[in-house]
Amino acid sequence: MTRPWSQRGLVLVLPALLFVLVMFVLPFLGVARVAMAGDPPPGTGTFFDISVFRPANLLDVTGDRLFRTVLGVTIRSGLIITGVCMAVALPFAAYVHTRQGRLRTALIAAVALPKLVNLLVLLYGVLLTLGSGGVINDVLTGLGIIDQPLRLFGNLFAVVFTEVLVVLPYPVLLLLAAFSASDPRQYDAARSLGAGPVRAYLETVVRPAWPAVVGATIVSAVWAVGAFVGPLVLGNPPYYTVAVEVYNLALERLAWVDAAGWALLSVGLFAVVLGGALAMTRRAEGRTA
Amino acid sequence: MDPLVPALELSGLTRHYGDVRAVDGVDLTVAGGERFALLGPSGSGKTTILRVVAGFEAPDAGHVALGGRPVEGLPPERRNIGVVFQDYALFPHRSVAQNVEFGLRMRKVGKTERRDRVAQMLTLVGLTREADRRPDQLSGGQRQRVALARALAPSPALLLLDEPLANLDRRLRESLRDELVAITDAVGITSVLVTHDQEEALSFADRIGVLRDGRLAQVGAPAEVWQSPTDTFVATFLGDMNLLPLRAGGPDDGCVAVQGISGRLAHDGVAPAAADVRACLRPEALTALPDAAGPGTVHSVFYAGGSVTLAIDVEGHRVKVRVQRPDGAPVLEEGARVRVEAAVDRVRLLHAGAVTEGDVAA
Asked: Fewer C-beta neighbours within 10 Å, C or N terminus of chain A?
């Protein structure tokens, strides 16, 4: 529904607009400016020279082989994390949606629980699970499937495992809310018209919830490409993402101009990719409507 | 289908929800091509029966057979039953034509045949021009027509209608009810209508089954159920009914005297001797005549367009009398003295059962 802006409407959106402006747009413009600043003059103790305006810094970043490699790693792990999250979240949300009572409550609590636990505690738990004396290795060794413990962390598996644990509650809860708005009589109608249980569910629950499926995918993707803790704690340098490298550049090497350039270009690229994906989804939606 | 084999057969059908027995040992047979109505108040179990027949729920006991074939364990998609729901249950993201086409796609009907069948169905329900519209762009009546076309498109053996007209206004309801009769006749399909609206059931069905507390209280043709109810529940559920006790004494010469009513009337139904026997007289079967020395007083007058209903206090009972008055003019004023006479020569007697007041049950 599109309506012309009214004063009342403006009052409703103003707090959110102000928040985004002050907390994101202005700092991001600052980052963009730093990305195009000069290197700090020696001996000044500063991290950049704001009196210099050098857009060519961004070309330097794009030409940096490390940046392109890390960007590739970030996109690859982001796609895997998003794919795994949605592959787990869709059937899980569907299952929870079809359950009732205590089981439903318990399942929702189980998936939301990681969000209530301190992130460091959560990571410690993951280390205990994936470590050489962890649960998985213990079970595999106990069953005689392996002789020596597997190295389950410091690799892509550990990064994906950790990030899925962190991200999964968002798509699950989004999908569950959308599925719960479906009309059960439509499901019955589809069954009476010859659709099996899965086809009827897809037609009458998942299909009407398509905007939520797209939304859940975007939320997962945004979290996935921004992955930081998983790659840092449980990954190795080959699995470091842009977020980790920006942190290293800014706080370890104090290269603020490079860090800002990396951040600006990666955010711009992800925004373009996500916007394109969204536009393609909308176009496909229009074709099937 | 063999015309001697019933289209639908229920035997000992029982369904519980926790401690509540929603359907309690229902036996029913619906013949091929018949229009049957399950009529009952809310909570009487009529929708539960429909859901069990459709396969949406399993019975706790008893059997369902379709065309002589038991369908226990058969999922809804393999029962070949069309269902029309009260709230339409159309797929909101699909157009009218796509909704109607859905069942044909599920049965893997070829594209050309699908297109022809959809066109045929939309013509049948008068919605050819709305084929490309979405359900939210249609009126309530149009949506219900789409739901009917969608249910009929795959040529089901049985059509179940779950209060299909309940969400519509009165005029549209009456018009669609007539269309339902015409369309089911044209298609020649066996149909079972579930409704709490006695007028809808009476005008739609070849036979009616009146449900009470999960049990079939009476099954019969509309006129039979209307004129010869087997108990006071059926008598009072189908429209207004005066339930009046008999006068004491007098030889039973096949006639009885009814409290509040002048004269004696021939009777049928139960024997008149028992104390809980009531005479069942519909308001249309009574007349009120001005009589200054009469035993009754007009308590109130209700105008309803072509008819006027009088509530008359007589001999300790309140009796309803309905008079056809096309001009709507009052027949009698409130407070007028009257005597009440029967306009019929036979009265039905029933044991009072749950109804003990002996007055009007509306």
From this structure: N
CB atoms inside a 10 Å sphere around CB A173: 19
A289 close to B (CB below 8 A): yes
How close, in Å, is residue B151 to chain A by CA atoms? 7
A282 touches chain B (CB under 8 A): no
* Residue in A193, A199, A208 closest to B92 by CB: A208
ipTM of the modeled complex: 0.85
Contact assessment for residue B232 and residue B355, using Cβ atoms and an 8 Å cutoff:
yes
The structure tokens listed for B121 are 């169905």
Q: Which residues of A touch B48 (CB under 8 A)?
A: none
Q: Phi then psi for A15, rounded to 5 degrees?
A: -55, -45
Q: Which amino acid is at B338?
A: V
Would an 8 Å CB–CB cutoff place B79 in contact with chain A? yes
Q: Cβ of A189 and B85 within 8 Å?
A: yes
Interatomic CA distance for residues A13 and B84, integer angstroms: 43
pLDDT computed for residue B217 by the predictor: 94
Q: Whole-prediction pTM value? A: 0.82
Q: Is A26 a residue whose pLDDT tops 80? A: yes
- Largest interatomic CA distance in chain B: 79
Contact B77 A192 (CB under 8 A): yes
Tell me what pLDDT residue B362 has.
Answer: 42
pLDDT at B356 over 70: no
Q: Do B76 and A188 touch (CB under 8 A)?
A: yes
Sheet holding B35-39, edge to edge: B81-84, B158-162, B190-195, B35-39, B207-212, B215-220
Angle at B223 between CA B220 and CA B229, to 5 degrees: 65
pLDDT above 90: residue B31: yes
Using CB atoms, pick whichever of A195, A208, A210 lies closest to residue B77. A195
Mean pLDDT score, B115-135: 94
- Of the partner residues B56, B93, B107, the one whose CB lies closest to the CB of residue A208: B93
Residue A102 backbone dihedrals phi, psi, to 5 degrees: -65, -35
Taking Cα atoms as reference points, which of A5, A122, A55 lies closest to residue A260? A55
pLDDT in tens, B137-147: 999 999 999 99
Q: Which pLDDT band, with edges at 50, 70 and 90, does B358 fall under?
A: very low
Over residues B273-287, the mean pLDDT reads 87
Residues near B352 by Cβ (< 8 Å), separated by ≥ 6? B232, B243, B276, B277, B278, B358
Give the tokens for residue B203.
């005008």
Q: Does A208 touch chain B (CB under 8 A)?
A: yes
Q: Is residue B79 within 8 Å of B54, Cβ to Cβ?
A: yes
What angle, rounded to 10 degrees, do the helices at B140-152 and B111-124 form? 140
Q: Which of A227, A259, A249 is nearest to A119 (CA)?
A: A227
Contacts of A12 (CB under 8 A, 6+ apart): none
Cα separations (Å) of B280 from B59, B159, B232, B310?
Answer: 37, 35, 8, 17
Check: CB of residue A86 under 8 Å from CB of residue A277. Answer: no
**Contact status of B76 with chain A (Cβ, < 8 Å):** yes
- Report the candidate in A223, A229, A207, A224 with the shortest Cα–Cα distance to residue A285: A207
Give the model confidence (pLDDT) of A151-197 as tens digits.
888 888 889 999 999 999 999 999 999 999 999 999 999 999 999 99
